[in-house]
adenylate kinase (Cucumis sativus), 294 residues
Amino acid sequence: MAVLNRFAGARAPANFYSSMFNYYALWKAFSSSSLSSEVDLKSTLLSRSSSSRPDLPMDRNVQWVFLGCPGVGKGTYASRLSSLLGVPHIATGDLVREELSSSGPLASQLAEIVSQGKLVSDEIIFDLLSKRLRASEAKGESGFILDGFPRTIRQAEILEGVTDIDLVVNLKLREEALLAKCLGRRICSECGGNYNITCIDIKDKEGRPELYMAPLLPPPNCASKLITRSDDTEAVVKERLRIYKETSQPVEDFYRKRGKLLEFDLPGGIPESWPKLLQALNLEDLNHKQSAAA
Ligand SMILES: Nc1ncnc2c1ncn2[C@@H]1O[C@H](COP(=O)(O)OP(=O)(O)O)[C@@H](O)[C@H]1O
């Protein structure tokens, strides 16, 4: 249970609450460019932390982050782990798409940014994330697995300043597979299920399979309702990959230096990768117990 104890060790460290003033000091460091939405995120996260006050012998749920290039499968694995651990899976890309499909005031601005593969401003992201965290708190949820956030060093610094992240899982996959996986991605317009019609089959020099990922085909009731994300075109995916390398890859180093990064090379599709990921996270027993109870 080494990894789980170290990272998922549910109890907040003893100095977590006494160091809140440091968080405030750190927060103030950003205040020259401070945005009201950042303040919202801070107060939301602090109020979530204070719901497990140190004088109450209460554990808190995991607070994890998933990093990785577009197409790597962050959503797939983060969502499976969130069901296993009983915490919400919060994907900022989903929050952006929900806002986009609403008739809210931000929709047209977001449509333009997303269609070019660019990053949305920190102000908008903090605002969407704060709202989402408040909604989950109102439902009595605690902990989270963040997917797609933080994506810049500034976002990482702000998050680090307002709450304790236990573990950052960095999913990695060969570059050749990423573009193909984005282009093969399909979503059921009715249930929101994620599928992939691409079969990745990369051979080594002797023609042996080096990376094989079977397609993830939809069940018959979703098959006629599949849609493609508007930003999953070749030109936009290439731009998202470029921006990831330039702006988001430094976030890996940020967490590596803090000893929070768990690198995970995907060995193949879900059948090969999921058990290995559970092993790396020391969650095999929990998975077995839940499967047996189901
Ligand atoms: N943390 C973030 N900061 C800025 N923009 C974001 C963030 N998360 C999502 N977005 C916006 O939403 C889009 C879709 O995000 P996501 O679904 O995570 O895509 P990807 O497949 O590229 O990881 C991004 O291209 C970006 O425009």
About this structure: The radius of gyration is 19 Å. The chain has a mean pLDDT of 84. The chain has 13 helices and ten strands. The longest helix spans residues 234-257.
